[in-house]
Amino acid sequence: MLSQEQIDFYQENGFLHIPGVFTQEETDELADELDRLVQDWSFTSEGWVGPWRQAYMDPETEKKSKLTAMHDLHLYSTAWMRGVTKPKLAGALAQLLGPNVELHHSTMHIKPPQTGHPFPMHQDDPFYGHKNEKFIDVLVHLDDTSHENGEIRFLAGSHKNGALEHVLETEEGPVTPHLPTDKWKLEDTVPVPAKRGDVVLFCYYTVHGSYINTTKEPRRMVRVGYRDPHNDQQYGQSHGRPGVMVHGYRERRGDEALLKQD
């Protein structure tokens, strides 16, 4: 699936754009199922909270900014189960993580039109921390992305710094984890626009963010997390829950117990 040049690029920069992972027909099906899930199961809220909002948005936009989201689409839709276990994608991940790859989660990220939620500079580690770098997030693109609708942006090579300390609380109380806005700026990042059916993957230590969606159409994207099954989770989303093996085999370590059945 991946050339040595692509593997080297990922290892150096901490992210990789892979065009055309999903066919037009597959992407249409995934998009239709996403729209159905939005209608039946998702929730729309103000999204991430914290002082970063004032740094990224003017007061009027900040009041209106929304995010539509839900977790684990593959537990609700066979189309998404096929999507997150697609052999072509799993094979690429095996080249980067090692031969054994476990699905961790899938999460919908939809930026509504014109006030669609920006994301401050952050790593994904604070949300589902593991013991090492063998965790990759994959962004499945259901719409073309650009600066206008808030494409993903990365600080190239930042994954080499490992887990960073994030802002978790202010005088007003707990906030969504993010890096200090006076030191970590979106202007310093590399934009990675992509087409529908493409994926953009990145190490969960890679610092990233995105601007607001200013267009009249929603920006639909799904983040899917994968890991080496021996990369033990320490806290956060889906902690303690086993995932589906999408490539290879779950090798037993010593007298390791069977997976929880309850």
Key structural traits:
eight-stranded antiparallel sheet; alpha+beta; four-stranded antiparallel sheet; globular
Description:
The chain has helices at residues 4-13, 24-40, 52-56, 59-64, 78-84, 87-97; strands at 15-18, 43-45, 67-71, 101-111, 119-122, 135-141, 153-154, 167-170, 173-178, 190-191, 199-203, 208-210, 219-227, 245-247. It is an alpha+beta fold and 262 residues long. It has a single domain, classed as Jelly Rolls (Sandwich), CATH 2.60.120.620. The strands form three sheets. Strands 1, 2, 3, 4, 6, 11, 13 and 14 form an eight-stranded antiparallel β-sheet that branches. Strands 5-12-7-10 form a four-stranded antiparallel β-sheet. The termini are far apart. The longest helix is centred in the N-terminal third of the chain and has 17 residues, at 24-40. Strand 8 (167-170) and strand 9 (173-178) form a beta hairpin. It contains six helices and 14 strands.
CATH topology: Jelly Rolls
| Rg (C-alpha, Å) | 18 Å
Average pLDDT taken over every residue: 92
Sheet/helix structural class: alpha+beta
Number of domains: 1
Q: How would you describe the shape?
A: globular
- What is the top-level CATH class? Mainly Beta
What percentage of the residues does DSSP assign to strands (E)?
25-35%
Low-pLDDT residue intervals, each spanning 5 or more residues = none
Q: Summarize the biggest pleated sheet.
A: 8 strands, antiparallel
Oligomer: single chain
CATH superfamily: q2cbj1_9rhob like domain
The helix count comes to 6
The overall strand count is 14
Order of helices and strands: HEHEHHEHHEEEEEEEEEEE
Helix content: 10-25%
CATH architecture descriptor: Sandwich
Distance between the termini: 37 Å
